[in-house]
Automatic annotation (TrEMBL):
One Gene Ontology MF term: DNA binding
Assembly: Interacts with UvrB in an incision complex.
Origin superkingdom: Bacteria
Record-annotated UVR domain positions: 204-239
Protein name listed in UniProt: UvrABC system protein C
Pfam family, one: UvrC_RNaseH
One GO term (biological process): SOS response
Gene: uvrC
Length: 613
């Protein structure tokens, strides 16, 4: 039932990890992508020259899923974790974490050092990373050693103080010689704390210092030194890139986010163990979308953690929950150690919660599409539609209409068709208003229906061979309430038709609320199957209208008559259109009015006026 070609169209323009599965649901490959849409599609392009191993893998793919993240580095780290978890057949299996370096500050020593390591231990030291580039780590450590007079030897201090002469670094002013007792322990550790702040992201002070050195070198025409300093700034910025998918505090925590549509709620949990995302689970709660989220999350947490064997020390939440203090105490007793419920307000955890909620939104959307694909939503929804409206039979063809505009420009309409409860995309039509010049939803709806039905009548009279509007609806749905229905009904009756027509009304949060039919408004909140169907139809109709509006708007910015006016480039053209809304309005403007636009001088205004007049 998994339609690969359809799912490929839905891939996002985001970084992430994709998971390929065979017919038995077994994970056979895990990969990362800077842009998921581009990377995953490459596997299924017939023209792609894949090596034999990839060809064999693609032939076994029955479905795929993906996890979006915020950067390529995060995707890389998550890919590594998932490969270790699933051990996919077509991946090169990594043995351990030694592929990625860390910076270790040995705060567990009297006189700390800075080291590069590929292993994280609970030894009292402070770790930063992991990082994808070993070169950046080495270069930054070298930079820090030059900027700060650090101890680089392995001498055991204070045991070995005074036993040997100071090394060359001391004479080169690159070490304070703690081995000779030349520096106070507390002063030395204060310097290391400053370095830790830099490695923790507070690095502006050092970057500014290096930049000043670079500018000084450039002024002295020492361009080679300036280039080296420039490269070091780049290395530090690369090193400081934040990591959320893999953290180094080695904490166990669960990250809980959610997403809701008009009917259902999806809760997603990311499991972080030993500082590493090791897995995720999602839970669907049908009919819970409009419940108070504090209550819903509280109920979920209690039910979920009542069944699991392990409770982490911290549960990070997208929003506050009811009875949080009581739940925290209960979980603390269950675990035997303190458990905290936390709603972060800033920092990396906020970004991680956002990533989890974004995945919940994607999961919910895929769940809804899967239900539609398998016929669950169409069958149950159509059955309830017949009962609610008192129809003799289920409408085989439903046409849904919506209007989209940008003020008085790009006034468009969409006609979306559902046949037997499923979208028939080849039947979709789009309209650009011809008689409506100002925002007027009722007039736009009437023009759209008139053109659509009049075209159908003309095609029938002329017996047109390539008729595109000859199929007539069994039920018409319009986006709006009773006024929209009455406006549409007037046109339908004038053309001699008697189609059934209903309005899809929304609540204050722009979610599908009710159906307006024959003067009655039917609340759909208690009818989940029908609410899901109408929501799908309304959302799809709105999507098509908005995308057409956006396409025309972008086209207007790209090319217009203004391109022929001397002195008018893209910046001035956009400014003019933003100000006057259309080229027609620009044609009517005088020189003084044209000068009101940012960037339009009197000289340019006269050229525009003379061109159009």
């Amino acid at each position: 039932m998994f339609d690969i070609q359809e799912e490929l169209k839905k891939l996002p323009d985001k970084s992430g990890v994709y998971i390929m599965k065979d017919a038995n649901g077994v994970v056979i490959y895990v990969g990362k992508a800077v842009v998921l849409k581009n990377r995953v599609r490459q596997y299924f392009q017939q023209s792609a020259n894949h090596p034999p191993k990839v060809q064999a893998m693609v032939s076994k793919i029955s479905e795929f899923e993906y996890i979006v993240v915020d950067s390529e580095v995060e995707a890389l780290m998550l890919e590594c974790n998932l490969i270790k978890k699933y051990k996919p057949k077509y991946n090169i299996l990594l043995k351990d974490d030694k592929h990625y370096p860390y910076i270790k500050v040995t705060l567990n020593e009297e006189y700390p050092r800075i080291l590069k390591t590929r292993r994280v231990d609970k030894d009292g030291a402070k770790y930063f990373g992991p990082y994808s580039s070993g070169f950046a780590v080495n270069d930054t450590i070298d930079t820090l050693k030059k900027l700060f007079p650090l101890k680089t030897c392995n001498k055991n201090l204070p045991r070995d103080i005074g036993k040997t002469r100071p090394c060359l670094n001391y004479h080169m002013k690159q070490c304070l010689a703690p081995c000779q007792g030349g520096v106070n322990r507390d002063e030395y550790r204060d310097m290391m704390k400053k370095i830790c702040r830099f490695l923790g992201g507070q690095y502006d002070e050092i970057i500014n210092d290096i930049r000043m050195q670079m500018e000084s070198a450039a002024e002295q025409l020492d361009f080679e030194k300036a280039a080296l300093l420039r490269n070091k700034i780049s290395s530090i910025k690369q090193l400081s890139e934040s990591q959320k998918v893999l953290s180094t505090d080695l904490e166990d925590r669960d990250i809980i986010g959610y997403s809701a549509d008009s009917t259902d709620l999806c809760v997603q949990v990311f499991f972080v163990r030993n500082g590493r995302v090791i897995g995720r689970e999602h839970f669907m709660f049908e009919g819970e979308a409009n419940e108070d989220k504090g209550y819903s999350l509280s109920t979920f947490i209690k039910q979920f953690y009542n069944t699991v064997q392990f409770v982490p020390s911290e549960i990070v939440l997208q929003s506050e929950v009811d009875d949080s203090e009581t739940i925290a105490k209960w979980l603390t007793e269950k675990r035997g150690f303190k458990v905290a419920l936390r709603v972060p307000q800033r920092g990396d955890l906020v970004k991680l919660v956002h990533m989890v909620s974004e995945n919940a939104e994607i999961t919910l959307k895929l769940h809804r599409e899967r239900q539609s694909r398998e016929g669950i939503v169409p069958a149950e929804g159509m059955s309830q539609l017949v009962k609610l409206l008192g129809l003799e039979e289920a409408p085989a063809r439903i046409e849904s209409y919506d209007i989209s505009n940008t003020g008085s420009t790009e006034i468009v309409a969409s006609m979306v068709v559902f046949e037997n409860g499923r979208p028939a995309r080849q039947e979709y039509r789009k309209f650009k208003m011809k008689s409506i010049e100002q925002q007027n939803d009722y007039g736009s709806m009437q023009e759209t229906l008139f053109r659509r039905l009049n075209r159908a009548k003309r095609e029938k009279e002329e017996a047109a061979e390539n008729a595109k509007f000859s199929k007539l609806p069994d039920l018409i749905l319009v986006d709006g309430g009773s006024n929209h229905v009455n406006a549409a009904k007037q046109v339908i009756e004038e053309l001699g038709y008697s189609f059934k027509i209903a309005g899809m009304a929304k609540d204050d949060r722009h979610r599908t609320k009710s159906l307006v039919y024959m003067g009655n408004e039917y609340d759909l909140s208690g009818n989940m199957p029908l609410l899901r169907l109408i929501t799908e139809i309304q959302d799809e109709t709105h999507r098509v209208a908005v995308e057409y509006n956006r396409k025309l708007r972008e086209k207007r910015y790209v090319k217009s008559e203004l391109d022929e006016v001397e002195g008018i480039g893209q910046t001035r053209k956009k400014a003019l259109i933003r100000h006057f809304k259309s080229v027609a309005a620009i044609k009517k403007a005088d020189v003084a009015q044209l000068q009101e636009v940012d960037g339009i001088s009197e000289k340019i205004a006269k050229k525009i006026y003379e061109y159009f007049n």
